[in-house]
Amino acid sequence: MQDRPRRLRRTPALRAMTREVHLSPAQFIHPIFVHERDDEQPISTMPGVSRHSVQGAVEQAREALSLGVPSVILFGIPDHKDAVGTQAYAPEGVVQRATRAIKAQVPGVTVITDTCLCEYTDHGHCGPLCEVPGQTGGDAWTVDNDPSLDLLARTAVSQAQAGADVVAPSAMMDGMVAAIRTALDDAGFVHIPVMSYAVKYASAYYGPFREAAGSAPSVGHRATYQMDPAGGHREALREARLDVAQGADTLMVKPALAYLDVLKLLRDEFELPVVAYNVSGEYALVKAAAQLGFMDERRTVLETLTSMRRAGADAIITYHALDAARWLREATA
């Protein structure tokens, strides 16, 4: 007797009935760039994405919730930057103000705050810099790890005080999860989860984000602290295990699409929820191809997000969140 798997693909109803992977707006996290101005500024490298005022961020959160997307993640772009990223942990920093406004006006939205310094430093790195003895060129400067931990911890506490539901440290500093967990607990925020960017690569896919956030490094490069794309599975597991031991509540893989093998590895190895970050470069590639008529944007986006779910992502940070939510709603209307 001949096997005929096609029998279960014959109609839309049969295909829907036998799917193993399901995509829902509830799994999406909508990223919002917030600046200190009153206008909306389109980001040239990310068609359809803008920098928003604080009130604009509120409206973005409101729209997300209306589409069934329950979570947003905030990235701040301050007017003033300095060597130590002071505005990251300032009580009246732009993310702190946006967090308070969203929680006051759209209380049903889960607010996640990116806990890093790169958008706030005048050199574009994720902490204060130090010179590396004996090194030249791009390796001559790097982030001074241990002094950065205190600044990241102060940032996390400041964000929690503003009402953040989740803090998401992304600096890839050794010991950052432990420092943040301890600081949150000491400040009375034992209930605030830490969504760690546990496995974050020094990737070319971040280019559009750096234009959006004004965070391109002016000296050195991030390869001295972000992971080598060719580092392999052992390094990914080591980083994730360290964050689990230090108290992370969820683990993230960034970028997602080029690292689905790593996403699957973490899903199989750990019981914690795993988040995929569908990053700016992945978004921009699809947008550019769609604008040129080379690809069907809707089908490509939904297929891409489904691949991340299939690899094991429990949630996906994606700039496609609102469009994808609309498309999924239309499909079930």
Secondary-structure blueprint:
Elements: H1 12-17, E1 28-35, E2 41-42, E3 50-52, H2 54-66, E4 71-77, H3 94-105, E5 110-115, E6 129-131, E7 141-143, H4 145-162, E8 166-169, H5 176-186, E9 195-200, H6 207-213, H7 233-246, E10 250-254, H8 260-269, E11 274-278, H9 280-291, H10 297-311, E12 315-318, H11 321-332
Parallel strand pairs: 1-3, 1-4, 1-12, 4-5, 5-8, 9-10, 10-11, 11-12
Antiparallel strand pairs: 2-3, 6-7
Helix pairs in contact: 2-3, 3-4, 4-5, 7-8, 8-10
Overview of this protein structure:
By secondary structure, the protein is α/β, with parallel strands linked by helices. The protein has a single domain, classed as Aldolase class I (TIM Barrel), CATH 3.20.20.70. The chain is built from eleven helices and twelve strands. α3 links the parallel β4 and β5. The longest helix has 18 residues. The radius of gyration is 20 Å and the shape is globular. The two termini are 40 Å apart.
- What is the helix/strand order? HEEEHEHEEEHEHEHHEHEHHEH
Estimate the helix proportion, in percent.
Answer: 25-40%
What is the class in the CATH system?
Alpha Beta
What is the average of the pLDDT values?
A: 95
Classified in CATH, the superfamily is: Aldolase class I
Distance between the termini: 40 Å
Annotation keywords:
single chain; TIM Barrel; two-stranded antiparallel sheet; 39% helix; 17% strand; porphyrin biosynthesis; ALAD; lyase
